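User: Could you check the structure of this?
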Amino acid sequence: MNERLLKLPTYPMVQLASWNQEIAARGMQAFDFGTGDPREPTPKILRQAMIDGIDEVSQYPPTAGTKGLRSAVSAYMQRRFEVTVDADQEVLATYGSKEALFHLPMTFVQIPSDKDLVLYGEPAYPVYEIGALFAEAWTYAVQLAPHNEYAMDPDSLPESVLKRAAIVYLNYPHNPSGYKLSDELFKRWVEVRAEYGFVLVSDECYADLNYEGDAPKSLLQFGREGCLAVHSLSKRSGMTGYRSGFLAGDAKLIASYRRFRAGMGTAPQQFVQAAAEVAWTETQHVEDRLAVFANKREVLLQMAKDRGLKVHGSEAGLYLWLEVVEGKTDLEYAALCREQGIVVAPGSFFGAGQERFIRLALVPTVEECRAAAAAWPSL
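Assistant: Sure, the predicted structure tokens are below.
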């Protein structure tokens, strides 16, 4: 057994599911703000595209993605970010974003070598660390906090760390804090990547969920060589169960990953790719979903104000990042919430030093958010 994997805590979503089950066993309604899996129906236009995409004969899907899907992705990147990507050489369909993020260290980190580090900001989506450990790479968590608006700054890192970096993950809009990264820091990361030669990966799966300020940017607006952007249809299009996303960027990196990914057998089913093609093309369903998320957000922002919970960031993405009341840890506060049937994700689920925070996913319906707000514990 891999000893380093044994030291990992229980995957957060497993613990959150267990808490929901405990509430249900008490005969209470569970308000699940833990797992980021929205309750709104997958848009009808996407469900119909998937049905229409089911062929009479089931065959293996194309690993790189269908031509139609890759062309739709290319058009999306041009429309959304004014970035031109070649559909054949610079785009790869993925089985959601998580699959790609998990596999990239296996492709681009050579062990042993003098470039054996995977860097990411913390608090973080756990797969950055988990994927690195499965690849036998070493990890370096860059500590992020409210005082720097959770901005990952290469100039704050030791040169010895940057020299050892094989992969650096950026994640903006940031999960869990919802902060965006400035243009200046995107540019600086591209400059530092050119100097030290690591693969710079930008997890941009919340780029279309923006509530305040300028729309989030893509890394590919600032650089291409050695750079990859990862996108997902899970939240923006309600396709969490479909498992569909894409990787775009440096053609050489895409070619390398495409070569090895064929052996992993994780291409999305062709009927899912048919739905994904529509999802990256049709924009009204994204606007509709964002409006619903915004309504939920307003209800929960008012609840936080009423309960004395300080909101940090939370200007984009699917989450609110709240600082709990003085005298309580994240786990203690989460336990109090569960007494009212409310499940929240403790900040410590996302890394060390986050014991003063909780994450709320904009998952329950607007009506359920109102009911949960009324039942929220007062301290």
